[in-house]
Amino acid sequence: MRIKTCLLTICLLWGTDAEVLAAPKKDRPYYENRGEIVWEVPTEEKLIALTFDDGPDPADTPQILDLLKQYEVKATFFLIGTKAERYPELVQREAAEGHELANHTYRHTYFNKKIPERRIRDELTKAQDAIHRISGQKPHLFRPPGGYYNETLVQTAKKEGFTVIMWSWHMDTLDWDTPGVNKITSKVLNNVRNGDIVLFHDYVEGKTETIEALKKILPELKQRGYRFVTVSELLSYRKLSPVKQMER
Question: By C-alpha distance, which of 124, 122, 112, 119 is closest to 150?
Protein backbone atom coordinates (compact mmCIF):
# COMPACT_ATOMS: atom_id res chain seq x y z
CA MET A 1 0.00 0.00 0.00
CA ARG A 2 2.83 2.34 0.92
CA ILE A 3 4.57 1.62 -2.42
CA LYS A 4 1.40 2.42 -4.38
CA THR A 5 0.98 5.67 -2.45
CA CYS A 6 4.58 6.67 -3.19
CA LEU A 7 4.19 5.88 -6.87
CA LEU A 8 0.97 7.90 -7.03
CA THR A 9 2.70 10.84 -5.34
CA ILE A 10 5.59 10.70 -7.83
CA CYS A 11 3.19 10.59 -10.78
CA LEU A 12 1.26 13.57 -9.45
CA LEU A 13 4.48 15.52 -8.97
CA TRP A 14 5.65 14.65 -12.47
CA GLY A 15 2.30 15.72 -13.85
CA THR A 16 2.50 19.03 -12.03
CA ASP A 17 6.04 19.64 -13.30
CA ALA A 18 4.96 18.82 -16.84
CA GLU A 19 2.15 21.35 -16.62
CA VAL A 20 4.53 24.01 -15.32
CA LEU A 21 7.00 23.28 -18.08
CA ALA A 22 4.22 23.41 -20.67
CA ALA A 23 2.92 26.77 -19.45
CA PRO A 24 4.24 29.67 -21.57
CA LYS A 25 6.77 31.93 -19.93
CA LYS A 26 5.29 35.40 -20.01
CA ASP A 27 8.38 37.41 -20.82
CA ARG A 28 9.28 39.68 -23.73
CA PRO A 29 9.07 37.01 -26.49
CA TYR A 30 5.64 35.90 -25.23
CA TYR A 31 4.11 39.37 -25.38
CA GLU A 32 6.06 40.40 -28.47
CA ASN A 33 4.87 37.39 -30.48
CA ARG A 34 1.28 38.09 -29.50
CA GLY A 35 1.59 41.75 -30.49
CA GLU A 36 0.52 42.86 -27.01
CA ILE A 37 3.72 44.76 -26.21
CA VAL A 38 6.01 46.42 -28.75
CA TRP A 39 9.67 47.26 -28.18
CA GLU A 40 10.61 47.97 -31.79
CA VAL A 41 9.55 47.18 -35.33
CA PRO A 42 12.56 45.98 -37.35
CA THR A 43 12.25 47.08 -40.97
CA GLU A 44 14.37 47.19 -44.08
CA GLU A 45 13.55 50.88 -44.43
CA LYS A 46 15.43 53.52 -42.46
CA LEU A 47 12.61 54.45 -40.14
CA ILE A 48 12.86 55.61 -36.54
CA ALA A 49 10.26 56.70 -33.96
CA LEU A 50 11.16 59.28 -31.34
CA THR A 51 9.09 59.22 -28.16
CA PHE A 52 8.89 61.67 -25.27
CA ASP A 53 7.58 60.77 -21.82
CA ASP A 54 6.34 62.64 -18.73
CA GLY A 55 5.15 65.87 -20.33
CA PRO A 56 3.93 68.29 -21.19
CA ASP A 57 6.28 70.68 -19.45
CA PRO A 58 6.08 74.48 -19.90
CA ALA A 59 9.87 74.90 -20.03
CA ASP A 60 11.10 71.92 -22.05
CA THR A 61 8.23 70.87 -24.31
CA PRO A 62 8.05 74.11 -26.36
CA GLN A 63 11.80 73.97 -27.10
CA ILE A 64 11.54 70.35 -28.18
CA LEU A 65 8.57 71.16 -30.40
CA ASP A 66 10.55 74.01 -31.97
CA LEU A 67 13.39 71.64 -32.83
CA LEU A 68 11.06 68.98 -34.23
CA LYS A 69 9.42 71.63 -36.38
CA GLN A 70 12.78 72.93 -37.58
CA TYR A 71 13.85 69.47 -38.79
CA GLU A 72 10.37 68.42 -39.96
CA VAL A 73 10.20 65.56 -37.48
CA LYS A 74 7.01 63.93 -36.21
CA ALA A 75 7.20 62.28 -32.79
CA THR A 76 4.99 60.54 -30.24
CA PHE A 77 4.35 62.16 -26.86
CA PHE A 78 3.31 59.92 -23.96
CA LEU A 79 1.36 62.35 -21.82
CA ILE A 80 0.57 62.34 -18.11
CA GLY A 81 -3.11 63.21 -17.64
CA THR A 82 -2.68 65.67 -14.78
CA LYS A 83 -0.02 67.58 -16.72
CA ALA A 84 -2.15 67.62 -19.85
CA GLU A 85 -4.91 69.27 -17.80
CA ARG A 86 -2.41 71.75 -16.36
CA TYR A 87 -0.92 72.73 -19.73
CA PRO A 88 -3.66 72.17 -22.32
CA GLU A 89 -2.15 74.67 -24.76
CA LEU A 90 0.94 72.47 -25.14
CA VAL A 91 -1.16 69.37 -25.80
CA GLN A 92 -3.10 71.31 -28.42
CA ARG A 93 0.12 72.51 -30.02
CA GLU A 94 1.48 68.94 -30.20
CA ALA A 95 -1.68 67.80 -31.93
CA ALA A 96 -1.81 70.81 -34.25
CA GLU A 97 1.78 70.22 -35.40
CA GLY A 98 1.07 66.63 -36.38
CA HIS A 99 2.56 64.75 -33.47
CA GLU A 100 0.99 61.66 -31.99
CA LEU A 101 -0.49 61.79 -28.50
CA ALA A 102 -0.32 58.71 -26.31
CA ASN A 103 -1.29 57.65 -22.79
CA HIS A 104 1.21 57.57 -19.89
CA THR A 105 -1.33 57.24 -17.02
CA TYR A 106 -3.13 60.02 -15.20
CA ARG A 107 -0.77 60.39 -12.22
CA HIS A 108 2.43 58.68 -13.47
CA THR A 109 1.66 55.57 -11.44
CA TYR A 110 4.24 52.79 -11.32
CA PHE A 111 2.88 49.27 -11.79
CA ASN A 112 5.87 47.52 -10.22
CA LYS A 113 3.73 45.77 -7.61
CA LYS A 114 0.36 44.07 -7.55
CA ILE A 115 -2.28 46.67 -8.39
CA PRO A 116 -5.97 45.85 -8.89
CA GLU A 117 -7.42 46.02 -12.37
CA ARG A 118 -9.87 48.77 -11.41
CA ARG A 119 -7.00 51.11 -10.43
CA ILE A 120 -5.12 50.41 -13.66
CA ARG A 121 -8.30 51.10 -15.62
CA ASP A 122 -8.83 54.32 -13.65
CA GLU A 123 -5.32 55.55 -14.52
CA LEU A 124 -5.84 54.75 -18.20
CA THR A 125 -9.35 56.14 -18.62
CA LYS A 126 -8.74 59.37 -16.71
CA ALA A 127 -5.67 60.15 -18.81
CA GLN A 128 -7.57 59.17 -21.95
CA ASP A 129 -10.50 61.43 -21.09
CA ALA A 130 -8.19 64.37 -20.37
CA ILE A 131 -6.25 64.01 -23.63
CA HIS A 132 -9.42 63.57 -25.69
CA ARG A 133 -11.16 66.50 -24.05
CA ILE A 134 -8.20 68.82 -24.69
CA SER A 135 -7.05 67.70 -28.14
CA GLY A 136 -9.90 65.77 -29.73
CA GLN A 137 -7.55 62.80 -30.17
CA LYS A 138 -8.24 59.39 -28.62
CA PRO A 139 -4.88 57.71 -28.05
CA HIS A 140 -4.59 53.98 -28.67
CA LEU A 141 -1.02 53.60 -27.42
CA PHE A 142 -0.03 53.27 -23.77
CA ARG A 143 3.35 53.26 -22.07
CA PRO A 144 3.52 52.27 -18.40
CA PRO A 145 5.77 54.55 -16.31
CA GLY A 146 9.17 53.02 -15.70
CA GLY A 147 8.41 50.28 -18.20
CA TYR A 148 6.82 48.13 -15.47
CA TYR A 149 4.24 45.66 -16.70
CA ASN A 150 2.48 42.45 -15.71
CA GLU A 151 -0.28 40.25 -17.07
CA THR A 152 -3.06 42.25 -15.39
CA LEU A 153 -1.74 45.50 -16.83
CA VAL A 154 -1.36 44.11 -20.34
CA GLN A 155 -4.81 42.55 -20.41
CA THR A 156 -6.49 45.63 -18.88
CA ALA A 157 -4.82 47.87 -21.46
CA LYS A 158 -5.94 45.50 -24.20
CA LYS A 159 -9.55 45.56 -22.96
CA GLU A 160 -9.45 49.35 -23.04
CA GLY A 161 -8.22 49.32 -26.64
CA PHE A 162 -4.53 50.10 -26.05
CA THR A 163 -1.34 48.58 -27.38
CA VAL A 164 1.47 48.70 -24.82
CA ILE A 165 4.56 50.43 -26.21
CA MET A 166 7.99 50.15 -24.66
CA TRP A 167 11.25 51.22 -26.35
CA SER A 168 14.26 49.58 -27.97
CA TRP A 169 16.52 48.42 -25.13
CA HIS A 170 19.57 49.84 -26.87
CA MET A 171 17.74 53.17 -27.27
CA ASP A 172 17.08 54.04 -23.64
CA THR A 173 18.89 57.38 -23.52
CA LEU A 174 18.58 57.68 -19.72
CA ASP A 175 18.10 61.40 -20.31
CA TRP A 176 15.92 61.56 -17.18
CA ASP A 177 19.11 60.97 -15.19
CA THR A 178 21.01 63.74 -17.02
CA PRO A 179 24.08 61.60 -17.90
CA GLY A 180 25.57 64.31 -20.12
CA VAL A 181 24.73 65.59 -23.59
CA ASN A 182 27.48 63.54 -25.21
CA LYS A 183 26.29 60.31 -23.61
CA ILE A 184 22.71 60.87 -24.76
CA THR A 185 23.90 61.74 -28.24
CA SER A 186 26.29 58.81 -28.59
CA LYS A 187 23.71 56.38 -27.20
CA VAL A 188 21.46 57.14 -30.14
CA LEU A 189 23.95 57.74 -32.93
CA ASN A 190 26.18 54.75 -32.11
CA ASN A 191 23.35 52.23 -31.70
CA VAL A 192 20.62 53.24 -34.13
CA ARG A 193 18.90 50.50 -36.16
CA ASN A 194 16.00 50.52 -38.58
CA GLY A 195 12.66 50.43 -36.78
CA ASP A 196 13.92 51.64 -33.42
CA ILE A 197 11.73 53.30 -30.82
CA VAL A 198 13.83 55.87 -28.94
CA LEU A 199 13.06 56.92 -25.37
CA PHE A 200 13.41 60.58 -24.45
CA HIS A 201 11.67 62.75 -21.85
CA ASP A 202 10.25 66.23 -22.30
CA TYR A 203 10.34 66.64 -18.54
CA VAL A 204 13.24 65.80 -16.22
CA GLU A 205 14.06 66.89 -12.70
CA GLY A 206 16.59 69.69 -12.87
CA LYS A 207 18.09 71.08 -16.06
CA THR A 208 17.40 69.01 -19.15
CA GLU A 209 20.17 67.82 -21.48
CA THR A 210 17.75 66.37 -24.00
CA ILE A 211 17.33 69.55 -26.00
CA GLU A 212 21.07 70.04 -26.60
CA ALA A 213 21.39 66.36 -27.52
CA LEU A 214 18.54 66.64 -30.03
CA LYS A 215 20.34 69.52 -31.72
CA LYS A 216 23.05 67.00 -32.65
CA ILE A 217 20.93 63.88 -33.10
CA LEU A 218 18.24 65.20 -35.46
CA PRO A 219 20.45 66.62 -38.23
CA GLU A 220 22.83 63.65 -38.09
CA LEU A 221 20.07 61.04 -38.43
CA LYS A 222 18.53 63.01 -41.29
CA GLN A 223 21.95 63.13 -42.94
CA ARG A 224 22.14 59.33 -42.64
CA GLY A 225 18.83 59.01 -44.44
CA TYR A 226 16.53 58.15 -41.55
CA ARG A 227 12.87 59.08 -41.77
CA PHE A 228 11.17 60.03 -38.54
CA VAL A 229 7.71 58.53 -38.02
CA THR A 230 5.19 58.31 -35.20
CA VAL A 231 4.88 55.02 -33.35
CA SER A 232 1.56 54.30 -35.05
CA GLU A 233 3.17 54.81 -38.44
CA LEU A 234 5.98 52.48 -37.44
CA LEU A 235 3.46 49.85 -36.31
CA SER A 236 2.01 49.75 -39.82
CA TYR A 237 5.28 48.05 -40.88
CA ARG A 238 4.87 45.31 -38.29
CA LYS A 239 4.56 41.75 -39.59
CA LEU A 240 1.90 39.67 -37.87
CA SER A 241 3.12 36.61 -36.01
CA PRO A 242 1.32 33.26 -36.42
CA VAL A 243 -0.16 33.72 -32.92
CA LYS A 244 -1.56 37.13 -33.81
CA GLN A 245 -2.94 35.90 -37.12
CA MET A 246 -4.76 33.01 -35.46
CA GLU A 247 -6.33 35.38 -32.90
CA ARG A 248 -7.70 37.50 -35.71
Answer: 112
